[in-house]
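Summary of Year 1 activities. Much of the first year was spent building the evaluation harness for sequence design. The harness presents a backbone, in tokenized form, and records the residue chosen at every position. We chose the following record to illustrate the format because it has been used consistently in internal testing since the harness was completed.
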């Protein structure tokens, strides 16, 4: 019997690991690790999902700060979230994949690849230093040199650091020798705007509650979907995952008008946004038997779905946390329930579509909106139904008729405004007749 080689080649491994993740999402992978540490440092070491949700609903001032700084030569991220011990660094932090049930200690890290994937995505030289009450570590890694090593099992060489006082733990990560594609993206000022937006949405329930996140010195503002108090909602539990679904009318983001950009379903897994304002078949839109295809008349629609679990691997997110695993049975059940809840709102919006057209303002929906609210994560919601207001009959109607073009132009000339629109000419003549023949 001959043993055939079946080991992984580092070059291919690194390429596959980093190919399908964007630069912005690499930054979010790094943030996941820092926020995980902050959550643990608050005392949620072995808390259950209920404890986790209670933590996220507090309004206490954030205790921790995460700082991201970058230019076209380096990327640096630092935090004071408690640090990483040398023991954890040597046994699990740099392992490619979470072993056994070690991921149960975290809430945003699931598969054990995010930190390594992000580092490899950014550049070749990685310097990391973490201070911890049990003793920290220091890493000096050249990815090219490490890739050239053929020794198995794979290891990173780290240096132990002395312990620090309780509460003084922090981690600093710097990546230099950036890849050319990364350098080009970081030189584009649009990237920073994109990154700030992504962070403000993905971590809206952590920012200003648990952490302050700064990008190149500027604090990121959280962006939360706001929904009116007139809601439809329900919840269920399946295989250790709690699901809470709420849908209603949002509040305008542009003056008093609604925009399609801020309509749709928002999905959170353990407080981290994985889908923001989705209007596609992924969340049931345009799927037969679920929701209608999204139209301009649906612009006020806002839906929120919270998945919460002690075991983050059961949540229906992908490894990149860019979306959901549609094969996950919990997600499939949730989409069915989302359709039931969402239809209560879309039916009302569909009923408004008529002679008024699809332009919707705050004033037009004032009787249905109620009070705008900040939706917080929850394990259960009381099943309630959306309450559409009674449709008010309009005293107005539409008059339509066809006339000879030459005669219509002669009427405009007689009015003294040859270039007036056909509609204005019709209104003028109708009002003229009303004033002279009816009153």
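For this record, the design step produced the sequence shown next.
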């Amino acid at each position: 019997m001959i043993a055939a080689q079946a080991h992984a080649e580092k070059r291919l491994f690194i390429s596959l690991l980093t190919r399908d993740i964007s630069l912005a999402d690499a930054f979010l992978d790094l943030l996941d690790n820092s926020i995980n540490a902050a959550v643990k440092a608050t005392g949620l070491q072995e808390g259950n999902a209920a404890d986790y949700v209670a933590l996220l609903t507090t309004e206490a001032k954030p205790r921790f700060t995460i700082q991201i700084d970058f230019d076209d030569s380096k990327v640096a991220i630092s935090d004071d979230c408690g640090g990483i011990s040398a023991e954890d660094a040597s046994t699990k932090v740099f392992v490619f994949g979470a072993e056994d049930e070690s991921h149960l200690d975290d809430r945003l890290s699931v598969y054990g690849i995010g930190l390594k994937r992000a580092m490899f995505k950014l550049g070749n030289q990685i310097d990391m230093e973490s201070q911890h009450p049990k003793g920290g570590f220091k890493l000096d890694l050249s990815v090219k040199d490490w890739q050239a090593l053929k020794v198995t099992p794979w290891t990173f060489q780290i240096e132990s650091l002395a312990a620090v006082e309780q509460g003084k733990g922090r981690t600093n990560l710097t990546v230099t020798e950036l890849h050319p594609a990364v350098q080009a993206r970081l030189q584009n000022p649009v990237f920073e705007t994109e990154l700030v937006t992504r962070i403000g949405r993905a971590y809206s329930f952590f920012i200003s509650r648990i952490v302050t996140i700064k990008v190149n010195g500027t604090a990121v503002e959280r962006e939360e979907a706001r929904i009116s108090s007139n809601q439809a909602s329900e919840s269920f539990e399946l295989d250790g995952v709690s699901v809470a679904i709420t849908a209603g009318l949002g509040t305008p983001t542009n003056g008093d008008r609604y925009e399609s950009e801020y309509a749709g379903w928002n999905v959170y897994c353990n407080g981290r946004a994985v889908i923001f304002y989705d209007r596609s078949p992924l969340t049931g839109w345009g799927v037969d038997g679920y929701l209608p295809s999204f139209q301009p008349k649906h612009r006020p629609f806002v839906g929120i779905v919270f998945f919460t679990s002690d075991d983050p691997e059961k949540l229906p997110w992908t490894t990149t946390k860019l979306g959901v695993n549609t094969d996950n049975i919990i997600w499939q059940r949730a989409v069915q329930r989302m359709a039931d809840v969402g239809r209560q709102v879309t039916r009302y919006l569909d009923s408004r579509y008529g002679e008024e057209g699809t332009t919707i303002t705050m004033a037009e929906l004032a009787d249905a909106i109620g009070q705008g609210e900040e939706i917080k994560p929850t394990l259960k919601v009381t099943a309630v139904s959306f309450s559409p207001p009674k449709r008010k009959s309009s005293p107005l109607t539409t008059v339509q008729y066809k006339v000879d073009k030459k005669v219509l132009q002669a009427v405009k000339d007689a009015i003294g405004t040859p270039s007036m629109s056909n509609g204005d000419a019709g209104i003028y003549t109708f009002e003229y007749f009303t004033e002279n023949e009816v009153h």
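Residues 10-219 form a domain with the Heat Shock Protein 90 fold (CATH 3.30.565.10). Quantitative recovery figures across the full test set are reported in Table 2.
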